[in-house]
Amino acid sequence: MNKSSQCEASEMLKRAGISPSYQRIMVLSALLETDEHPSADTIYKKLGSNIPAISRATVYNTLNLLVDRGVIQSMRTAGSETRFDSICEAHSHFFCRKCKKIYDIAKQIGEIKTELDGHLVESQEFVYKGLCRECREEMKK
Amino acid sequence: MNKSSQCEASEMLKRAGISPSYQRIMVLSALLETDEHPSADTIYKKLGSNIPAISRATVYNTLNLLVDRGVIQSMRTAGSETRFDSICEAHSHFFCRKCKKIYDIAKQIGEIKTELDGHLVESQEFVYKGLCRECREEMKK
DNA sequence: TCAAAGAATAGATTTAATCTAAATATAGAT
DNA sequence: ATCTATATTTAGATTAAATCTATTCTTTGA
Ligand SMILES: [Mn+2]
Ligand SMILES: [Mn+2]
Ligand SMILES: [Zn+2]
Ligand SMILES: [Zn+2]
Prior knowledge:
Distance between the termini of chain A: 37 Å
Strand order of the largest sheet of chain A: 4-3-6-5
Bound molecules: manganese (II) ion, zinc ion
Oligomer: homodimer
Strand content of chain A: 15-25%
Number of strands of chain A: 6
Structural class of chain A: alpha+beta
Shape of chain A: globular
CATH superfamily of the largest domain in chain A: Winged helix-like DNA-binding domain superfamily/Winged helix DNA-binding domain
Largest interface: A-B, 31 and 31 residues
Radius of gyration of chain A: 17 Å
């Protein structure tokens, strides 16, 4: 929907050596426009109203390709669906056990490990779980 | 298989107010005997060789019940299956992207948050991902 | 001894994700 | 411009983890 995010998406694709097809631009652009860490199906439904519509397989293919190329990241921690994040720079997440929303948390300062017990560390993240602000308010009522 | 882990499992179930049926003892006991963070199906297969065998549904039911009661913990970060951990005390994990093994990492000292941006923090963990010791060795060959 | 509640079970169902095989689109060569 | 090879998209079939359903078995305690 948003012209500037489509432009940004196109640039990101080119930079990653992925040809910027209409469908790929639409998928990445949809992800860039939100901070809600949507699932593949959420993105598919969001794009479904567009003409021409995009196949579900293409949404999955594109997201997986982008993850493989390190353009976006995915997480399987909350709920049953894999969720996606257009921001790859290190930051933390808070997962709400009730509404399944995922919130960004500013990166905590801490030692960055490259090795741990002989294992090669490629990424590290602080994961917080609990009840989010909104759900806490709901509970009070 | 192991008598002492069955005894421990039985005690844990009683302490959590869950009646210690044969099946529940077998499931929890199997989880106590390993540090490999097995999936429900791994536990099911391990128990399958026992007589009498246990239903897959019972394995899932028991594990979910134990997670709900806070006796064990589950994680959905590596591979496609949910993995289980009999250790609930705070510790970190390393996930190998290649072999999907999960390794325990001693808890890093760090500030324990109870609130973050207004969200109620119930648990927090450092998550490490990369290539494990064994897989690194494999690669060298 | 019997009724009611608690557990376990096999198999059906759901659902996220992947796979398949065919159709379209794109790019490079002639 | 036309042809050809490659890349991309697609709808629908398939897979696999997890849950659900409806029945059977077990335990408890009146
Ligand atoms: Mn994020
Ligand atoms: Mn562990
Ligand atoms: Zn919430
Ligand atoms: Zn490994």
